[in-house]
């Protein structure tokens, strides 16, 4: 068994073509020339979560095996943006914004990748080779593709079928990304499965430019969010950010649906695959203890970003609060506004909204009527409950939201 | 009635929008600023025929009214050509070829347009503004159009429906042609009806570039060939070239089907439109004398290119040959091959093929059996006829093909 190959293949959705990937690895081992592994990103304000980490961790694995990451900042497209503003997807970014976003991004991925060692990490901006392209060259690049091929790309196909406009300039994006591969001479390009088309454009353009061994596509799956349904994303609020605290990471992992456990282990940890596989089998047979597996997963994930000690502490905090039903060591304080109180009492729903434990009166009343609100551990079961307040009282909404009430 | 407007509108298939055209003419009359009238051409080896002359004669009319023609040589696209050779439609042309073709073209259109007076005629090469375009600018231009809009262009739509490939680079051509209009600040662009899409792209790009009064499209119909069915074209051999002799022009006009007479008068002469209209009415009522009208048309057309004297002479020659049934002043000689003769006689069908009066034995026999072959004015009515040959004998096949037989 080729160990580097197996380690790199772990979790991959697809490698195109797998045999080329194997020969590249063998060639690299023979010649000791590191492979150049490409990842392209948009320099939009990033907030990296575990969904992004799937690809970044794979890059880390390449680094560990001696290969070189080439990170491409798509500053050229970001500088162009969307001239007429017809589409809301791209805003023009200034050079300063691009640079600030790049630094924020680098600081975050520095938690996963080695971004300091130049032999292992190269940073490039694609305006370097895209801005000077001549019209003649652009026509030659475009010539390699037909309109029908581009319309086969899934998102274009959907939009065309649904009569939603596709700007002609959008057809350039795959070609620009593909030409990046020509410019930096990548051996492998990483991306989510949604990048398959663009990465294969890069392979084709390398071939046209006479590369003897054009780049291989290594496609990682799109990670489901903590809801277990949709793609992890900030806007769906089903994400775990890599800058979140160990407590938050651990807590969010504990709330994922059971069926995600093996997938998260596979894509987010280095737990040996045979253990992942037996866990999966046990789960499907309704055996084993999912809660314990989640705790192990949560601790492993938190340890990646905060170290083993902080992760263990997060697990202990979690146990204390949610298993032993104790309040956490640190509870934020909330000074009850005077106008909410009358004779030392307050309408519970108003108090919940005011203390930010519920987003609206409606939600506050829903929580109350469900019995999800406790004051000093006692459930308030009436949506119109009026609470006798004492200084230091702990008010809890749902499983994880607390405040300590202060009467000033 | 606005006389310049009516004169310019004569024969036009469509003017988009007509009211803008009117205001441009009025504005020009008021300010005495000539309008800039654009025509773009490919610098392929040209052989101009009456089909092309429809647009060129319209340009001539603009010149007569004081406006300025801007002829754009599409050297940029010709220099790029088709890099992979997938399509057979475009070959890369060298600069020398482009220049030679341009000079040939200018020499020919000089028979119709004033190409000498710089105030009336400006020659530009579109590489001047297309070659230096940046990628950023190209993306901005492309952004103005959607893929769906481009796929609505008739030829693209047909190819897409029939799953015939459209190279992505082909989508650039309308945009390049459109940008030509921005670069040269045209007021009106002329073209055949097949140019409607491209010319409107130019109008849109001028609008986007802040032109207060973007260019108007003046679309001329595509002229039918002398067969009265298909578009006039060299490859269909249904054309009348503008470098053909007065005799050839006159003769070809005499052979057009009657229904083309008014259309040819409208698009190829200056015969007043009221006369054209009454001729059309008479034709449809089976009145009048089509042969006389054709003779008038043929003489007018020949006179444009060869002068009135030569045209009159061509008409007389034609009459002598075809009406008075006399042989023409000049008849090519054909020396009868010895192996065709036996005792001073030859098989007529073989003789016809050998003398190039019939393309095949089959056709030769058909002509004979139809009674369409004459020797010294006597019809040979048998497809197996054997002819007693004398030196100087005139052999005629059909109405217009003769040889004088020589026995060496």
Which labels suit this protein?
alpha/beta; 408 residues; 5-stranded mixed sheet; homodimer; 17 helices; 6-stranded mixed sheet
Task: Describe the 3D structure.
2 copies of one chain form a homodimer. Chain A is an alpha/beta fold. Helix content of chain A is 46%, strand content 14%. Chain A has helices at 3-9, 18-31, 50-64, 75-80, 95-109, 127-130, 135-142, 147-152, 154-161, 172-184, 196-208, 246-254, 261-268, 273-284, 290-323, 348-354, 361-369, and strands at 14-16, 36-41, 68-73, 121-125, 188-192, 216-220, 333-335, 341-342, 345-347, 373-375, 378-379, 386-388, 394-397, 401-406. In chain A, the strands form 3 sheets. Chain A has a 6-stranded mixed β-sheet, with helices on both faces. A 5-stranded mixed β-sheet of chain A has the order 7-14-13-10-11, with no helix packed on it. In chain A, strands 8-9-12 form a 3-stranded antiparallel β-sheet. In chain A, helix 12 crosses helix 15, helix 13 (261-268) runs antiparallel to helix 14 (273-284) and helix 16 packs across helix 17 (361-369). Chain A starts with a helix and ends with a strand. Mean pLDDT of chain A is 89; it is low at 83-88. The interface between A and B is large, with 37 and 37 residues.
Percent strand of chain A equals: 5-15%
Largest interface: A-B, 37 and 37 residues
Helix run count of chain A: 17
**Uncertain regions spanning at least 5 consecutive residues of chain A:** 83-88
Assembly status: homodimer
């Amino acid at each position: 068994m080729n160990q580097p190959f197996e380690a790199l293949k772990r979790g991959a959705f697809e490698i195109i073509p797998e045999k080329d990937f194997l020969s590249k690895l063998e060639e690299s081992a023979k010649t000791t020339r590191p492979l150049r592994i490409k990842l392209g990103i948009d320099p939009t304000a990033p907030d990296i979560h575990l969904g992004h980490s799937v690809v970044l961790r794979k890059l880390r694995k390449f680094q560990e095996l001696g290969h070189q990451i080439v990170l491409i900042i798509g500053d050229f497209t970001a500088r162009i943006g969307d001239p007429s503003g017809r589409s809301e997807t791209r805003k023009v970014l200034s050079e300063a914004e691009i640079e600030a976003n790049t630094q924020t991004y680098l600081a975050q991925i520095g938690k996963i990748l080695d971004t300091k060692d130049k032999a292992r990490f190269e940073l490039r901006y694609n305006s370097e080779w895209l801005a000077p392209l001549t019209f003649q060259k652009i026509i030659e690049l475009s010539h390699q593709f037909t309109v029908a091929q581009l319309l086969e790309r899934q998102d274009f196909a959907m939009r065309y079928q649904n009569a939603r406009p596709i700007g002609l300039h959008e057809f350039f994006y795959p070609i620009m990304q593909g030409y990046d591969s020509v410019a930096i001479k990548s051996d492998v390009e990483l991306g989510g499965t949604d990048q398959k088309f663009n990465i294969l454009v890069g392979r084709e353009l390398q071939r046209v430019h006479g590369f003897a061994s054009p780049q291989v596509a290594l496609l990682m799956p799109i990670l489901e969010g903590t809801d277990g349904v949709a793609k992890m994303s900030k806007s769906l609020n089903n994400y775990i950010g890599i800058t979140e605290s160990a407590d938050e990471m651990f807590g969010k992992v504990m709330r994922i649906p059971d069926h995600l456990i093996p997938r998260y282990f596979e894509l987010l940890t280095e737990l040996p695959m045979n253990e992942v596989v037996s866990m999966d089998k046990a789960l499907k047979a309704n055996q084993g203890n999912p809660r314990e597996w989640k705790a192990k997963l949560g601790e492993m994930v938190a340890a990646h970003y905060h170290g083993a000690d902080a992760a263990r502490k997060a697990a202990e905090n979690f146990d204390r609060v949610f298993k032993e039903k104790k309040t956490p060591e640190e509870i934020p304080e909330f000074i009850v506004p005077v106008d909410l109180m009358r004779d030392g009492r307050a309408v519970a729903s108003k108090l919940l909204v005011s203390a930010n434990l519920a987003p609206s009166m409606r939600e506050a009343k829903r929580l109350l009527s469900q019995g999800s609100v406790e004051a000093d551990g006692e459930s308030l079961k009436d949506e119109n409950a009026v609470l006798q307040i004492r200084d230091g009282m702990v008010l809890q909404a749902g499983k994880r939201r607390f405040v300590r009430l202060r009467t000033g």
